């Protein structure tokens, strides 16, 4: 669901498992005119009143970390390691094969996975008409989760399924929404880009005053229908934009030439957006003459206050960094997004005030890592177009979390509300690739955002950005690196099939759960497996295959090859989770082709053994 990829602290190092290389220190930009408008007050009723704008002084982040990562590493690297309080997986965007899904759930449970994150698509449930709800698909989903003994993390998915990298479904948001509000055109409900294209993926934040009531109504109905399942719900995520993330659709399919690794496109050109920019600007400067004085313009009318007429030259010339107009535009654009995040979270708190009132809430920001290291004015341009960072603060300082302090602050705003809000961030599996054309600093970004969350006492959990990232040892090394040296406290893997069908994904996530999950018994035990009478032909070997990830999850292609020092008796000692019931069999197959020469140990009964405590070894045998 995330665009291709995602995702040093100043004077600090960027961590890799083998190499700690110091990075460059960047000159700061000037910090001026810190303006922010505070989030909405919501009347706790089904239909709510929204106050779209209230300028207040921008809150800077808390003090930067007092001790650098370098010093902490020298003292004791283990001090910085974070336990994962949750280890979850994402369900498919839409399940079509429930039998396969059930098998994946069973494997996930055996690995120690806690919960399954599931998109609850607005368009799937309420697509037939306003207040016509069909929860049948999710009734089936819950039954499968319960049967597997897994918890649930539902996502209130108010965005379209389809159109993002990795999407394999087509579930638009409810079509009736575009004509639902008398006197408001469909285009006024949509984001309009600098290319004059309209996005259908989600309703524009500049229509929050209209549509947020529909969101609350949907969430109310969700709580009403599934209230009895509260005990199995670990967290409820709230979609706040395209792909379920708090961002603008700056690199989505309605525009051309804006995907990875470009700067994207600004999405502030609808009539409601332009009207809001004018109101914000006049509120800041008091009058048109004040605007002209601050910007050095000669505007003749308030209606002449507009987003950049040529966004490409606006960025290439550095106007977003170097002019008051540019910094104001980006500040308004950014704060409009963070205010939207607050309104969406406020709406969720209002809606989930019954059976779900004690369940923590969460939201996601994407790791938009490309163009960060661009040495020209395009530096940070992709993040800016997505609305994640402003340009009137130092973007290279820990004190601002490299520009992320205010969007992290959306979660921090609820610290005293009595409701826990979790921040999710993607790209934990990625490396830096700081060269043309991508200029990616994904790994650095993972640490910047985690550091900013720690500064504001925000709970942050991580995800991989691309499904393929958890299929490589490099990806898992980076994930474990983030948990060892940054403040991430939970992992959600995109997606379940990438870690439950054998291979590197399954073996590494199983290892991660054993090593990082808080409460998981520490360390492995050993089992010495023996297969008797394993007569084979040249190129064929005997493998131990079983129900746990370390034995391939019943997939012969991922079984453990045994040794035959006393042929035809085969043996192998395998590290497995301690105190775990293991079902297994001996399997013959060809070494070069796992689908050829396959012969299972005969009989309908599996061999069974329970591993001992960590560090101990038990034995188990089977025979052909």
| Secondary structure tally: strands | 25
Adjacency order of strands in the biggest sheet: 5-6-7-10-11-12-15-16
Which structural class matches the secondary elements?
alpha/beta
Mean pLDDT: 86
How big a fraction of the residues is strand?
A: 15-25%
Distance between the termini: 46 Å
**Cα-atom radius of gyration:** 26 Å
How many helices? The count is 15
Specify the biggest β-sheet: 8 strands, parallel, barrel
Shape: elongated
Helix content: 25-40%
Question: What are the defining features of this structure?
Answer:
single chain; 624 residues; alpha/beta; 15 helices; 25 strands; elongated
Question: Which helices and strands occur, and which strands form pairs?
Answer:
Elements: E1 13-15, E2 20-22, E3 35-37, E4 55-57, H1 69-75, E5 86-90, H2 98-111, E6 115-121, H3 122-125, H4 136-148, E7 151-157, E8 191-192, E9 198-199, H5 208-226, E10 235-238, H6 271-285, H7 288-295, H8 311-316, H9 319-322, H10 324-351, E11 360-365, H11 381-385, H12 405-412, E12 421-425, E13 432-433, E14 440-441, H13 442-455, E15 460-463, H14 473-485, E16 488-493, H15 503-516, E17 524-532, E18 540-546, E19 560-561, E20 563-566, E21 569-577, E22 581-590, E23 599-600, E24 607-610, E25 617-623
Parallel strand pairs: 5-6, 5-16, 6-7, 7-10, 10-11, 11-12, 12-15, 15-16, 17-25
Antiparallel strand pairs: 1-2, 3-4, 8-9, 13-14, 17-21, 18-19, 18-22, 20-21, 22-23, 22-24
Helix pairs in contact: 5-10, 6-7, 10-12, 14-15
